[in-house]
Amino acid sequence: MDSKDTFTLDGWALILGASSGIGGACSIELARRGMNIFGVHLDRKATVPNAERIRSEITGMGREAVFYNVNAADPDKRREVLDEVGKILSARSGSIRLFLHSLAFGTLRPLVSTDFKEAITQAQVEMTLDVMANSFIYWVQDLVARKLMGRGGRVMAMTSAGGQRAWPIYGAVSAAKAALESYIRQLALELGPLGITANAIRAGVTDTPALRKIPGHEKMIDLASTKNPGGRMTTPQDVARAVALLCHEGSQWMTGNVIGVDGGEFIVD
Q1: Residue 207 has pLDDT above 70, yes or no
Q2: Other CB atoms within 10 A of residue 203 CB
Q3: Pair 172, 105: CB distance under 8 Å
Q4: I need a labelling partner for 251 at 20 to 30 A (CA). Which of 126, 131, 193, 218 fits?
């Protein structure tokens, strides 16, 4: 850490996708800055230890870490989590300072194919949009309606270059990212009077478990490393530091944006 890198934060962050990748890095960075963490993640037995590692690292810094291993796109689970979050915040007279949507779960298949069985199905399109875009809206709706976030609050969502560019088999995810960016613009309008900002973070190609599920990810990694003006790929820590900066009170007038955190990768053909 740079010796000048001294600003601190307080309050609570609610992070969807908190157990790995960018969500995990943000959980740790925000805790390092002074925030307590509500983490929502969906892990099976094999990956639960990583969620526990992140939670332990947060509590080791003297922060609170309350993690929920549930499907964040399930409306009943969302309500259950927020019921408990509300009770905890009420007992501590606290509020959510940041809500970060970092869910990466969708179907990677072509929209059309000469082999009907290879093309993405209606159910898969709807699931991808619901998890990676629509669920963002539902969580924000509930946070505001329950008065768990007030003035000075931040809502952020992770997008990607795929929201504006076309890649093979990425069609449904690309549509979800484009929808997410549109939601951000609308939320900036609607949340502005409440003193809450809304921004999307467009990370560069980042080596995460989600990336490694994409066929051909090795080529994506090589290309990003080669063309990035910084001479390397984006890391989860790069993104986490940017998210922390956007939680600073000095960023209050920044809203409705798609903010690139990629070392200039997106602008290079």
Answers
A1: yes
A2: 25
A3: no
A4: 131
The model's pTM: 0.93
The residues pairing with 98 across neighbouring beta strands, listed in sequence order, are: 13, 154
**Cβ atoms of 6 and 32 closer than 8 Å:** no
Task: Summarize pLDDT for 98-109 with one digit per residue, the tens.
Answer: 999 999 899 999
Confidence of residue 3 (pLDDT cuts 50, 70, 90): very low
Pull the structure tokens for residue 63: 């922060």
pLDDT for the residue numbered 4: 63
CA 116-118-119 angle, 5° bins: 75
Closest listed residue to residue 248, CA positions, set 98, 95, 100, 96: 98
Q: Token pair of 89, please? A: 């915040």
SS3 call for 234: strand
The angle that helices 135-145 and 171-191 make with each other, rounded to 10 degrees, is 20
Query: In 221-251, which positions are buried (b, 16+ CB within 10 angstroms) versus exposed (e)?
Result: beebbeebeeeebbbbebbbbbbbebbeeee
